[in-house]
Amino acid sequence: MTSKFLGIDIGGTSIKLGIVTGNGDIVEKWQISTNRSESGNMIIKDIVNSISGKIFENKLKISDFSGIGIGVPGPVEGGRVKRAVNLGWKDMPLVEIIQQSFNLPVQLINDANAAALGELWIGSKKGMQDVVFVTLGTGVGGGIVVNGKIINGANASGGEIGHIPLITNESRICSCGNINCLECYASANGLFHTMKNLVNQYDSMLKFSNTADIFELSARGNLIAHEAIETTISYLAYALSSIINTLDPEEVIIGGGLSDAGEALLLPLRKSLKPLLFPQIKDNLRLRKASVGNDAGVLGAVYQVIQEQKL
Q1: In this structure, are strands 140-146 and 149-150 parallel, antiparallel, or unpaired?
Q2: Domain that holds residue 279
Q3: How far apart are CA 101 and CA 51, in angstroms?
Q4: Could you give the CA distance from residue 236 to residue 216 in angstroms, rounded to a whole number?
Q5: What angle do CA 200, 201, 204 make, to 5 degrees?
Q6: Beta bridge pairs of residue 134
Q7: Pair 212, 151 in one domain
Q8: Which EC numbers characterise this protein's activity in its record (predicted)?
Q9: Which among 42, 72, 132, 219 would be 20 to 30 A from 14, CA to CA?
Q10: What angle separates helix 223-247 from helix 263-273, to the nearest 10 degrees?
Q11: Got the DSSP string for 73-134?
């Protein structure tokens, strides 16, 4: 497929845009700032103006494109963004507005789900259809793909891996309002919090500023940092094992800021997962670091458009 598509990945601080071929090649990419003034009403105008300008600049026409894919940070349903706190949106009819602006087919998808599809399309082995994508960043996000289709769920909340409840010896309030969700412990913030608690308990003079420092301390043999990482990985392994044993995916992909630790994270995670997995799964599971990077959201949004047009 050689048609061109427009991919849009809307974030709280910036919006990534791209012209993408049907084969997943990015012809051009650019980004604009997210203008959240006027309850986010300027965001759509900025997107439309930016795309129109880029099409003119490249001497293209709207008719050169086969569709537009959009990823947004929030639940989506029926072409509407149900709620996007970072954008100031509630029940925003985004598909309708963009379709009226460009007269092209538009698909709307949650940003974590878009990133999952982007990784599946470009990062996974050809022919894979079942993957679990987990982002370990400020929070914990995720996307679940079964038979090549994203799981959105009855309430547009499928793949909310970060909100799997945990049983722990302490109590942390999650941003969703619940207590002891996975992201309270397995996110970058969660690891930092765990490390801080251990430092206060064992060595208040130990200095660290971020999660990279924690992994560096552990690599140098610091037992407190090692325990903080092991605790974080243990919680993550228990949560992931329940998903893996339920879905039996071909691949689990780890992205987000914590994945920058590479094998320092993935190696102990594989080790922690193995005794928790169903026998037929444990020796066959592929666990890898996300490889597509910041383009995953744009690519996944386009992939969703292509898949819908195949139906």
Answers
A1: antiparallel
A2: 128-290
A3: 10
A4: 20
A5: 40
A6: 142, 254
A7: yes
A8: 2.7.1.2
A9: 132
A10: 60
A11: SS-EETTEEEEEGGGTEEEE-HHHHHHHHH-S-EEEEEHHHHHHHHIIIIISPTT---EEEE
For residue 136, the domain's CATH number is: 3.30.420.40
pLDDT in tens, 130-164: 999 999 998 999 999 999 999 999 998 999 999 99
CA–CA distance, 261 with 264 (Å, rounded to integer): 6
CA 44 – CA 48 distance, rounded (Å): 6
pTM (predicted TM-score): 0.91
Please give the structure tokens belonging to residue 47: 């997107």
**Do strands 140-146 and 131-136 pair parallel, antiparallel, or not at all (unpaired)?**
antiparallel
1 — pLDDT class (breaks 50, 70, 90): very low
Q: What would the two tokens of residue 205 be? A: 């003079």
Q: What is the DSSP code (8-state) at residue 258?
A: G
Q: Do 86 and 196 share a domain, yes or no?
A: no
CA distance 14 to 31: 7
- Shared domain for 51 and 146, answered yes or no, is no
- pLDDT, one tens digit per residue, over 227-271 is 999 999 999 999 999 999 999 999 999 999 999 999 999 999 999
- Per the structure, the count of domains in the chain is 2
Q: Burial level of 262, CB count in 10 A (0-12/13-18/19+)?
A: exposed
- Residues 46 and 164 placed together within one structural domain of the fold: no
Report yes or no on 155 lying in a domain.
Answer: yes
* Residues 283 and 299 both lie in one domain: no
